[in-house]
Amino acid sequence: QVQLVESGGGLVQAGGSLRLSCAASGLTFGTYAMGWFRQAPGKEREFVAAISWSGGKTYYTDSVKGRFTISRVDAKNTVNLQMNSLKPEDTAVYYCAADLRRFRSYSGSPGLHDFGSWGQGTQVTVSS
Q1: How far apart are CA 12 and CA 125, in angstroms?
Q2: Parallel/antiparallel/unpaired status of strands 3-7 and 78-83
């Protein structure tokens, strides 16, 4: 059974930084693309960033390009999201996700339907 456990959320002032981590188990981690999504109160869950199974490709939603960086450490079964220059509109619960299928890269930004395993989420709050 796949387990994804997020950590690193918290309260930060606008302009600050946070680093989210996701520890994965129950899957051959190095063969799956991984992603981060977020859901703000009253809004749908949305794509934030993803990284291909090889780590050679990364994908970002336009609103976080240049501020967020996704990375993976296969030896530790971990995917990270470094978030800099945080804005109040980044406030949301952030979810880690593992792709439905192995060895996949995406032609464009992946969507919710591309991911089959999800963590429970970690709250990120950015104050103005």
Answers
A1: 6
A2: unpaired
Q: Which residues contact 16 (CB under 8 A, 6 or more apart)?
A: 86, 126
Share in percent of the chain as helix, strand, coil (round to 5): 10, 50, 35
pLDDT tens profile 16-75: 999 999 999 999 999 999 999 999 999 999 999 999 999 999 999 999 999 999 999 999
Tokens at 102, concatenated: 């192995």
Q: Are 35 and 57 in contact (CB under 8 A)?
A: no
Closest CA to 81 of 104, 60, 101: 60
pLDDT class of 108 with cuts at 50, 70, 90: confident
**pLDDT at site 104:** 86
CB atoms within 10 A of CB 16: 14
What is the rounded distance in angstroms from the CA atom of residue 9 to the CA atom of residue 59? 21
From the number of C-beta atoms within 10 Å of its C-beta (0-12, 13-18, 19+), residue 128 rates as exposed
